[in-house]
Fold this sequence. Notes:
The strands form three sheets. Strands 5, 7, 8, 10, 11 and 12 form a six-stranded mixed sheet that branches. Strands 2-1-3 form a three-stranded antiparallel sheet. Helix content is about 10%, strand content about 35%. Strand 7 and strand 8 (about 125-130) form a beta hairpin. By secondary structure, the protein is mainly β. Mean pLDDT is about 80; it is low at about 70-80. It contains two helices and twelve strands, in the order αβββαβββββββββ. It has helices at about 1-15, 60-65, and strands spanning about 25-30, 35, 45, 85-90, 95, 100-110, 115-120, 125-130, 135, 145-150, 160, 165-170. The protein starts with a helix and ends in a 12-residue tail after the last strand. The chain is elongated and about 70 Å long.
Amino acid sequence: MNSIKTSIxxxxxxxxxxxxHADIYKSVNDxxxxxxxxxxxxGSEKIKVKNPQSITLPKAADVFSxxxxxxxxxxxxxxLYQRVTITQPANESAFNSGNGLVSVSSETTPALQPxxxxxxxxxxxxxxxxxxxxxxxxxxxxxxxxxxxxxIDSEGKTIISSDVTTFTLxxxxxxxxxxxAN
Length: 182
């Protein structure tokens, strides 16, 4: 339960990272779960956060290709790919996963060349690479995420990138047990 509170607070702090002095509001929902937000709600109280920590995320343009197109950017291997496509999850999809499991599938046209592999990038963070194009992500936080698959050569250079796929993951939230008075 503490991890839920922590993730909610962390999400609120990340959302507030742009302005240095943003307001944070604390409230308790009908199920007794403490929630933090940058938006005031009925019954919420404004709280002070000393030295809020923030992170600076890389710009999407620095992580993803600028046009998301399927053009060949290197000529060293002589291999030409027409495109890389993420086939699962569908772009702009939303789905439930209680344990945060997300399956990602991709394919290239033509088939992947020897010495090349597919690298998964989620929210700007590169994950592992393989030659199958199927990836299993676990414990993905709920919310909206962006995926991209890159074909990389043996030196890790990106040859071609897929279009960015956006999906929203819904995860249930366990109700908080309220203490009983004796």
